[in-house]
Specification:
There is one protein chain. By secondary structure, the protein is of the alpha/beta class. The protein has a seven-stranded parallel β-sheet with strand order 3-2-1-4-5-6-7, sandwiched between helices. Strands 10-9-8-11-12 form a five-stranded parallel β-sheet, with helices on both faces. It has two domains: about 190 residues, 3-Layer(aba) Sandwich (Rossmann fold); about 160 residues, Rossmann fold, CATH 3.40.50. It has 15 helices and twelve strands.
Length: about 400
């Protein structure tokens, strides 16, 4: 049986979708392992996949102050990640499926082990004239400027991975090569990358090379027999559809402030709310508000009137899949990119940057998102388009070609 190793690193949203992808490959007859952080071992095993541990120090990255310190922390993280990926791969792999974060490390392993690799990305990472790099802000610099900034962004990524790649190549007895050199080699070879987001949300850039495809989302695994917790189900049935508010893995230590802000905004807008505790630790209760832990978005989102979220790739897609409008509150990384896309498509209000979030601004945005039907209609159109897509099926076909 062909052994597939999926490698994904980061926060919940960076990992959870790969459980559904892995389950689809397993159902097709492959032996699938998912290498990620031990926090997510229960998710991996619930999907019927083998778990292989990768180091995790993402909290240290978030505590870093300033760009230089952030890059230093990120470099330390990927250096540890590289060693963990080697340990995971030597336990057996005939094909590596790599996320954006693990790809620059996985290329070295593939070279040493003489096995094929496939990119399975959740964000567009290649330079294009169509838009600036997803972590470089949302203001377009024009076609030439966008593409130039995209190239500069990749060079910054190469700097982050320099120590990790050097260590990996030495450990694997490979000749020395800089990350940029290895990356250029992959590009010349037309290394295949399948992007797990909808072309209705981000169309494939016309200036991308062959082998870079936008195929539609793959989704987090959840057992088909899973139901909503009884308390949540009862709350949903007790009144009009509430608003969901959650910040996922963001906003640690902000729980008290955000909870008070959320309650004030909901009551000012005359709306009920479901707060997801998340890393921030949101917590509030009352006849009109309920706090929940981890609940599958696929089950909850179709039951709510709107979603307030940090605009991570996974949560943004889940809201669109449910056909409901959003109020995006981006915090960092690729979140401003997705927030801007949702708003441009008419499925969300204008983004409220996390640092500018106040109860009056949130209340006003919630009122528009829930009561202006144009947002729901736009989200519904996108949901219809996404329902016809099969991202995991496209990945399966690519795997079949490589194995």
């Amino acid at each position: 049986m062909t052994r597939i190793l999926i490698a994904a690193a980061g926060s919940y949203g960076d990992v959870a979708t790969y459980t559904g992808l892995g389950a689809r490959l397993r159902e097709a007859g492959y032996d699938v392992a998912l290498a990620t952080h031990d926090t997510f071992a229960p998710l991996v095993e619930a999907a019927g996949l083998r778990f292989r541990e990768l180091p995790a120090n993402t909290q240290a990255q978030r505590r870093a102050d300033g760009r230089k310190e952030l890059m230093r922390a990120a470099a330390g993280f990927v250096r540890e990640l590289g060693g963990g990926l080697v340990d995971a791969a030597v336990r057996g792999a005939d094909l590596l499926v790599l996320s954006t974060t693990t790809a620059p490390l996985g290329w070295q392993l593939a070279e040493a082990m003489s096995i094929p690799t496939l990119g399975a990305y959740l964000q567009p990472a290649h330079p294009t004239r169509a838009f600036p790099p997803v972590v470089g802000g949302t203001r377009s610099l024009g076609g030439l400027g966008n593409r130039a900034l995209g190239g500069f962004s990749l060079r910054m990524v190469d700097r982050v991975y320099a120590d990790a790649v050097r260590d990996l190549r030495a450990r694997l007895s490979l000749p020395a090569a800089a990350p940029g050199t290895v990356r250029a080699r992959q590009e010349r070879a037309g290394w295949p990358v399948l992007h797990g987001f909808s072309p209705a949300v981000v169309p494939r850039p016309a200036d991308w090379r062959a082998g870079l495809d936008v195929i539609g989302n793959w989704w987090p695994y959840h057992d088909r027999e899973t139901t909503l917790p009884p308390e949540l189900d009862a709350f949903l049935r007790a009144g009009p559809p509430p608003v969901f508010i959650g910040f996922g893995s963001m906003a640690g230590g902000e729980g008290a402030r955000l909870s008070e802000l959320a309650v004030s905004a909901l009551r000012a807008a005359g709306l009920r709310g479901v707060l997801q505790a998340g890393r921030a630790g949101l917590a509030a209760s009352g006849d009109d508000i309920l706090t929940v832990g981890e609940v599958p978005h696929a089950l909850l989102f179709p039951e709510v009137a709107a979603v307030v979220h940090h605009a991570g790739a996974g949560t943004s897609a889940a809201a669109l899949r449910a056909g409901i409008p959003a109020v995006p509150v981006p915090v960092t990384a690729d979140q401003p990119f997705w927030a801007a896309r949702l708003a441009a498509l008419g499925a969300a209000t204008a983004p409220i940057p996390f640092k500018d979030l106040t109860a009056p601004r949130l209340a006003e945005a919630l009122g528009r998102a829930v009561r202006d039907e144009t947002y729901a209609r736009s989200a519904g159109r996108l949901a219809h388009a996404m329902a016809a897509e099969d991202g995991a099926g496209h990945v399966l076909k690519a795997v079949e070609r490589l194995t």
